[in-house]
């Protein structure tokens, strides 16, 4: 009888994170979600402090996932500050 580690064949695999299909947001929706003005969004984007725009023709859009990640990062920074 083998004494080494055994291989478990029926063990479930860990679930991969599931992300819904990303949508693109216009400046109005980005401002609504962040409570920032368009000029602030553009300034932060130029300073590489906000997700980059995606251009479709002349229309600028932002990734909804990237905007949400940016919001979550701001919350994490807030929560990491000492009280």
Layout: helices, strands, pairs:
Layout (H helix, E strand, L loop, with lengths): L23 E2 L1 H8 L3 H9 L7 E3 L2 E5 H17 L3
Antiparallel strand pairs: 1-3, 2-3
Any overview of this molecule?
The protein is flat and about 65 Å long. The chain has 83 residues and is an alpha+beta fold. The protein starts with 23 loop residues before the first strand and ends with a helix. The chain has a domain of 57 residues. It has a 3-stranded antiparallel beta sheet. The model has no long low-confidence stretch (mean pLDDT 88). It has 3 helices and 3 strands.
Strand order of the largest sheet: 1-3-2
What's the total count of β strands? 3
* Outline: flat
Sheet with the most strands, sense and barrel status: 3 strands, antiparallel
Mean pLDDT: 88
| Low confidence ranges | none
User: Strand portion, in percent?
Assistant: 5-15%
Radius of gyration: 21 Å
H/E element string? EHHEEH
By DSSP (H or I, 4+ residues per run), the number of helices equals 3
Helix content: 40-55%
Euclidean distance between termini CA atoms: 59 Å
**Secondary-structure-derived class:** alpha+beta
Structure at a glance:
The chain has about 80 residues and is α+β, with helices and mostly antiparallel strands. It has helices at about 25-35, 40-45, 65-80, and strands at about 25, 55, 60-65. The mean pLDDT is about 90.
Features:
83 residues, alpha+beta, 3-stranded antiparallel sheet, 3 helices, 41% helix, flat
């Amino acid at each position: 009888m083998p004494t080494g580690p055994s291989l478990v064949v029926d063990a479930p695999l860990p679930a991969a994170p599931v992300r819904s299909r990303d949508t693109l947001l216009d400046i109005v929706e980005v401002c609504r979600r962040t409570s920032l003005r368009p000029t602030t969004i553009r300034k932060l984007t130029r300073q590489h402090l906000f997700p980059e725009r995606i251009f479709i023709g002349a229309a600028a859009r932002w990734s909804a996932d990237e905007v949400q990640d940016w919001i979550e990062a701001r919350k994490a920074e807030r929560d990491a500050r000492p009280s």
